[in-house]
Amino acid sequence: MVDPLSLEAITTAVTAAAGSVGTEAGRQAWGSLADLARRAFGRGDRDAADDAAAPAVPLPLEPDSERQNQALAALLYGRAFQDEVFAAEYRRWEEQSRAVTVSTDHSTVVNNVSGNARVRNLYQGRDITVNPR
User: Fold this and answer.
1) For the range 87-90, what are the long-range contacts, defined as Cβ-Cβ under 8 Å and sequence gap of 24 or more?
2) What would the pLDDT profile of 15-66 be if each residue is shown by its tens digit?
3) Contact 21, 63 (CB under 8 A)
């Protein structure tokens, strides 16, 4: 079992959320993740004094950017590693969003055997692993 707070698991969850923004549930999952990130890194409600002290660096919150998804996952992982309260908040988000995110692989497979093909064994499908004997 993969630790839900490992970099791999967080990257997978962020990527799944980003890939599901085409659905209403996916947009809500991504939005709640973005809100969590903003709160964690002080980009949410801030006082005017904080704004004057140092300009905020934008968070990587563009769901269509694989690079930004990886950067966001790394930021979340680092924060969860250092902050138990945030780690608990992230776990709650991950559990709630797991049911609404969908696979980010939108590929299709088309297999054609035609003409005078002589086939002894034919496997058609997707993600097939064959172990030779």
Assistant:
1) 87/5, 89/36, 89/40, 90/5, 90/10, 90/36
2) 999 988 888 888 999 999 999 999 999 875 444 344 555 556 789 999 999 9
3) yes
